[in-house]
Amino acid sequence: MKKIRITVMKITEYKDLMERYENPILHTCDMQPGQVFVANGWEKPDGFCQSAWDSLSPFVMTLAHGGENIYDGWMKNRRSAMIACNDGFRPVSFLLEALDEDAG
């Protein structure tokens, strides 16, 4: 099983939707663009958002098991995927990349 590098690429906020639909909350996403996590196979990295992991984990699992070419040529790198978390107010885009080293 391969290790998977997960890089935070972009964080978007839809303030109009937040103001209209979201209850005020004190704590939101802790992710920062450029932040990197490494998943050992299918295991969620320490400190990684559970909600984001729920969105990414099927793709991490596929890449960790050697899967390639997700969605038939969608990515230039066949061993990668660009996936966003399911937060409709502040989605985070993640680049997933299979590494050559195996998870231990």
Low-confidence stretches: none
> What proportion strand?
25-35%
- Main-sheet strand order equals 2-1-4-3
For the CA atoms, what is the radius of gyration? Answer: 15 Å
Kindly report the oligomeric state of this protein.
Answer: single chain
Classify the secondary structure makeup into a structural class. Answer: alpha+beta
Estimate the mean pLDDT confidence: 92
Question: How is this structure best described in words?
Answer:
The model has no long low-confidence stretch (mean pLDDT 92). Strands 2-1-4-3 form a four-stranded antiparallel beta sheet, covered by helices on one side. The protein has helices spanning 15-21, 50-64; strands spanning 2-11, 36-40, 80-84, 92-102. It is an alpha+beta fold and 104 residues long. It has one domain (2-102). 21% of the residues lie in helices and 30% in strands. The protein is elongated. It is built from two helices and four strands; from the N terminus they run E-H-E-H-E-E. The protein starts with a strand and ends with a strand. Strand 3 and strand 4 (92-102) form a beta hairpin.
Keywords, separated by commas or semicolons:
104 residues; alpha+beta; four-stranded antiparallel β-sheet; 2 helices; 4 strands
